[in-house]
Amino acid sequence: MREGQNAVIHRADYRPPAFWIDSVELCFDLDPVKTRVLNRMRLRRNPDQPAQALRLDGEELNLARVLVNGQGTSFKLEDSQLILENLPEGNAPFELEVFTTCAPAKNTKLMGLYVSNDSFFTQCEAEGFRRITYFLDRPDVMASYNVTLRADKAAYPVLLSNGNLVEQGDLDGGRHFARWVDPHRKPCYLFALVAGKLVAREQRITTASGADHLLQVYVRPGDLDKTEHAMNSLMASIAWDEGRFKLPLDLERFMIVATSDFNMGAMENKGLNIFNTKYVLASQATATDTDYANIESVVGHEYFHNWTGNRVTCRDWFQLSLKEGLTVFRDQEFSQDLAGEASARAVRRIEDVRVLRTAQFPEDAGPMAHPVRPDQYLEINNFYTVTIYEKGAEVVRMMQTLVAGEGDPLGRAGFARGMALYFERHDGQAVTCDDFAQAIADANPGSPLARLLPQFKRWYSQAGTPRLKARSHWDAATGTYSLALSQSCTPTPGQPHKDPFVIPVRLGLLDAEGRQISDGLHVLTEDSDTLTMSGLAGEPVPSILRGFTAPVILEYDYTDAQLLILLAHDTDPFNRWEAAQRLAIHRALHFIRSGEHVELDAPFVEAMRAVLRHPTLDSAFKDLVLTLPSETYLAEQLDEVDPQRIHAVREAMRMGLATALRHDWEWVYEQNKDTGAYRPDSRSAGRRALAGMALTHLCLAARTSGDPVWPGKTLQRFKDAGNMTDRFNALAALVACGHELAAPALASFHALFKNEALVLDKWFALQAGAPDHGGNILPVVKQLMQHPDFNLRNPNRARSLIFSYCSANPGGFHRRDAAGYVFWCERVMELDAINPQVAARLARALDRWKKLADPYRGAAREAIARVAAKPDLSRDVREVVTRALAD
C-alpha cells in the first residue's frame, strides 16, 4: 500500500495482503540501549492474491537474522521494507524467523518501543509495530500472539503484555521472564508491552454474565492513591456495556497502565490499555472536576474499544472512524447515562457540540478538510482528527436517530439491535464503515435509515459542514405557518461539488407565551423542502435542530424576541442554550464589524440575569449559558478575521456582564460556593463551576472599580480551598483579570505542587492561555520555556505551554508584529526533530490563515512557508504545511 516514504496512499488502491500471518511468537530481551526481539511467525500465502514477494515493514531496526523454515534465505532491504522472494510455493504454511535489535532509550518519537521514566512502553497505532520488528503492519492482518518478556528483575519487576499470564519465573543473572498469551486474534497495532517498577490497584469483579475477572490499574509508586476514580470508571464501563449492549468483558483480566510520556490520550491495546497519566490519576487535591469527567470518559472510551475496534477492527486506516467515531459515540452515551437527570445529560450533550463547533467545523472549512472516511493520506497519524472522532460520532448518532420507532423515540433499542447484528456478522474480522452501516440498517428494515442508506453514506464520503437554511412564512389570515428548509455544502479540497445529505431535523414550535405546540422529526433528503402547519392561533417560534440532531450549521434569521422566548421557555435544553449563544453572537459580530464601543443592551443583560437567578435551572447549565462564544467560534462566523478585534470585543462583553450583573454574581457565588465534602458528581461539579465563573466576573468588575475586596476574597479562596477545582478556579480568576495578586498566587501554586507533573501542566497552561493585556503573554511563554520544570520532549508539557499559547489563545498568538508566528515556526521545527506527531499537531495552529486580515495573513503565510522550506521535514509536518499553502 506504500511505495516510497512520500507516496500518497489512496483508498481506491486497497488490496488484501498477499500473505496472512496466523500466529506470532515474540521474545523480548529488554534493554534500554539495545533490546533484542526474536520474532517467529507462521505465514501462508493468500490464495486470492497473485503470487508475489513478501514485503515486511520496518523502521529504525538493526536486522541480525532471517530464517525460513529454520534455514537461511536471501532477502533485500528497500524503502524501509524487508523483501523476501524465495519462499515456499503453494498455500502451505511456513515459518519465518526475524531477529532484530532496537534502541528504546533513543526513541523520542514515542512510537514503537520506548523508555519513559526508566520503564518500557509501546505505542503501535497506527504504524508503530514496524519500529519493534519487521511485520505486515496493517490492520487487516490478524494473528494470535504468544509473547515472552525477559528483563532485569530489580530494574523491571513488572512485565506485562496482552491477554493472559500463563507462565513466569526467574532466570540466571538476576533476570526473570513472563509469558503472555492473547486468546483473541488481533492486528499488530493492538500489541502492547510494559516493563518497569510499577504498583497496581486491583479489583476482582463478577459481571452480570457470572464471569470472574481481575482488574488492575498500574502506576508509578507514589501515585496509587490517585487511581480510585479510574478503577471506578472502569467498573462502571464494564457494567454499562454489558447492560446497554450485552457486550461482556472477554478476558480473565483487564489492565490499565499510566505513563507520563504519551502522544495520545490513551490506547486500547487488547486487555492492556496504556494511558497518558492525565486520564488516570486523580485526587481532589490535584485534579479538577473536568479532569474527573475526562478520566471517566476516556477510560470508558478505551474499554468500549474492546469490542468496537478490537473484536471487530478496521480493514484499512481509511476506515478509522469505524472504530473511533463509533466508540466516541459510545463514550458520549456512557457519560450521559452516568450523568443521570435530564439537565446533566443536556450539559454533556452541549459540551460535546461545543467541541464539534470550535474544533471540527473549522477543520471542515480548512486545508485539512477530509471526509469521515478519507480517500487518501500521506501520513496516517495526521488523520487522527476531530473529523474522524467527533464528526464520526455524530454520524453514528444520526443512525440511532434514524432507527427510532414507536415505543423507541430515541432509537436506542433499534441501534442496539443493529449492534448485535454487527457483531453476529463480523466478530473477529477487519471490516469497513459500509459493513457497520449496513448492519444497523438491516436490523431496522422499516426505518428511514434502511430506506435512505446509500444517500446517508454520503456523510462518510463527503467532506465539509452542510449548511441548513430555514425560512419561515406566516399567513395570519389562514393560520398557516410554513418553514422552508434547504441544504448546501461549500467545496472542500478535491470535492468541488456536494450531493444532498440525509439530515434529520428535530423541530418544535412554541407559541408567543413559550408553550410547546408541536415536536417531531423531519428528514431532509433533497436540496430543499417545505413543511406546512395550519390551524394555528398565532405565529409560532420555531425551535429548529433540537438536541443538535445533525452536525450542520443552522442559518435562520431569529429575532431577539424569538430567541428570548426560546431561552426562557424552550423544553429542549440544547436549543435553550443555543438561543443564548445566538443572542451573544449577534451582539459580538455587530461590535466586531462596526468598530463601535462595546456596550451591552438591557434586554440581553436582563436575559442573562434571569438565567443566573432562575430557581430551578441546573448550575452547570447556567455556567454554559453565561459562557460567551469562544474567539475561535466567533472567527468562524466572519469572512475576514482580525483576531485582535475579536479578542477586544469578547473581553469587553465579559467585562460588561461582570459590571452589569455584579450583585447577581455576588449572590450566585454565595449560593454555590459551598458543596460539602468533595464529590465529582455532575450537580456538585456544576455548582463549583458556576462559583468559579462568579469569582472571575467579580474580579473583572473589581479591575474597573479598583475595589480590592473581591480580589482579596479570591486569594483567600485560593488559600483555603479543599479541592483542586476551587483552588484552580480562584487562581484562574486572578490571572484572568490581571490583578497584582496573581503573581504571588502563581508562585504559591507552584511551590505547593512542584512535584505533581499534571498539576504543573495546569500551571503552565493557565499562564500561556491568559488574556493578552498589551502583548504580555508571548514574553511570559518564552520565559516559561526556560523554567527548570519545562521539558519539550514530554508531550504533556509541550502541549500545556506551547499549544495553549499557539492553538488556544488567539488574542495572544495573532500579534500584529508577527512575533507569535515566528515563535510557532521555531517550535514546529524544533519539535519535528524530536516528535513529528506532536509537531504536526502544533503545525495545524495556522490551518485557517487564509481567513486572516492583513497584516496577519501575509505574516502567517511567510511562517508556514519557512517551515515548508526545511529540507529534512518529517512526512507528518510536511503534509500539514503543504496542504495549508495549497491554493
Automatic annotation (TrEMBL):
The keyword Protease applies. Pfam families: DUF3458 (PF11940), DUF3458_C (PF17432), Peptidase_M1 (PF01433), Peptidase_M1_N (PF17900). Its cofactor is Zn(2+). It catalyses: Release of an N-terminal amino acid, Xaa-|-Yaa- from a peptide, amide or arylamide. Xaa is preferably Ala, but may be most amino acids including Pro (slow action). When a terminal hydrophobic residue is followed by a prolyl residue, the two may be released as an intact Xaa-Pro dipeptide. Residues 464-557 form the Peptidase M1 alanyl aminopeptidase Ig-like fold domain. It is an enzyme of class 3 (hydrolase). Residues 560-886 form the Peptidase M1 alanyl aminopeptidase C-terminal domain. GO terms for biological process: proteolysis. GO terms for molecular function: alanyl aminopeptidase activity; metallopeptidase activity; zinc ion binding. Keywords: Aminopeptidase, Hydrolase, Metal-binding, Metalloprotease, Protease, Zinc. Transmembrane segments: none annotated. Residues 41-190 form the Aminopeptidase N-like N-terminal domain. Belongs to the peptidase M1 family. This is Aminopeptidase N.
